[in-house]
TrEMBL record:
Required cofactor(s): Mn(2+)
Residues where Mn(2+) 2 binds: D41, N80, H115, H196
Binding residues for substrate: N80, R81, D123, S161, K165, K168, H196
Domain of life, per lineage: Bacteria
Protein name (database record): UDP-2,3-diacylglucosamine hydrolase
InterPro entries registered for this protein in UniProt: Calcineurin-like_PHP, LpxH-like, Metallo-depent_PP-like, UDP-diacylglucosamine_Hdrlase
This enzyme's EC code(s): 3.6.1.54
Record family assignment: Belongs to the LpxH family.
SUPFAM superfamilies tied to this protein: Metallo-dependent phosphatases (SSF56300)
Chief location category: membrane
Enzyme class at the top of the EC tree: hydrolase
Binding site for Mn(2+) 1: D8, H10, D41, H198
Length: 246
């Protein structure tokens, strides 16, 4: 028995090597996994399930093939880039959508999983924007716009977000430890697994007056990283991006 967690691949037509790394990972590393959790930002940008690109369809086909071949389940938590992924694409890709904060039983240990953007409270500009773009009414209106217009809006937001990252320091991009403690205490867990910060690391600390761990999954830009869990334990694995293609 084995469960894998990945996040922040940011797939796009401009970075084919990451897409190839994902497909190789599914074919060579994840073959004995019973469950795959994707913790957001699988795509660089998402403007609606009604957009059909070769990349979207290819990823959906590969995920479905993986699920059927290995009798595996795939779960998805929205990221800040692809929070508009809906039930239509989830069905096409054989994924089950989960709430932004989800508790799971990970081989007998209650574990909290999430994308992780809600942990970065120092990034006040983003948190304000998040409240706006996650408004169900505004999302409905956005989905009613012509696809061509939504594409322009989506890429403008992406470009603005990337330019602002240059001026953000590590503390702003990292998680707020007080929020980590608050959420873990609220959910009554000793383990948290998330993405978003692109800083693959395992943090050991005390929560609920017991030993706790926070697994930051990391991104797939120059390396690939994933959390590997089985009944014997949980570990963070970091490998070269082309590891399974060598």
């Amino acid at each position: 028995m084995r469960t894998l967690f990945i996040a922040d691949l940011h797939l796009s037509e401009n970075h084919r090597h990451i897409t190839d790394a994902l497909f190789a990972f599914l074919e060579k590393e994840a073959t004995n996994a019973e469950t795959l959790y994707i913790l957001g930002d699988m795509f660089e940008v998402w403007i609606g399930d009604d957009e059909h690109t070769p990349l979207m369809d290819e990823v959906a086909q590969k995920l479905t093939s993986f699920a059927k071949k290995n009798n595996a389940k795939i779960f998805y938590i929205h990221g800040n880039r692809d929070f508009m992924i809906g039930k239509r694409y989830a069905k096409q890709a054989s994924m089950t959508l989960l709430p932004e904060h989800t508790e799971i039983d990970l081989y007998g240990t209650k574990t909290l999983i999430m994308h992780g953007d809600t942990l970065c409270l120092f990034d006040k500009n983003y948190q304000r924007m998040r409240k706006v773009i996650h408004n169900p009414v505004l999302q409905f209106i956005f989905n009613c716009l012509p696809l061509k217009l939504r594409k322009r809006i989506g890429w403008k937001i992406r470009t603005a977000s990337q330019s602002k990252k240059v001026y953000k320091n590590t503390n702003m991009m990292g998680v707020t430890e007080q929020e980590v403690t608050r959420l873990m205490e609220f959910h009554g867990v000793q383990r948290l697994i998330h993405g978003h910060t692109h800083q693959a690391f395992v943090h050991d600390f005390t929560v609920n007056e017991k030993a706790g761990q926070r697994f930051d999954v990391g991104d797939w830009y120059t390396n690939l990283s994933f959390v590997d869990a089985n009944p014997e334990g949980v570990e963070l694995v970091i490998l070269p991006i082309d590891y399974y293609q060598q």
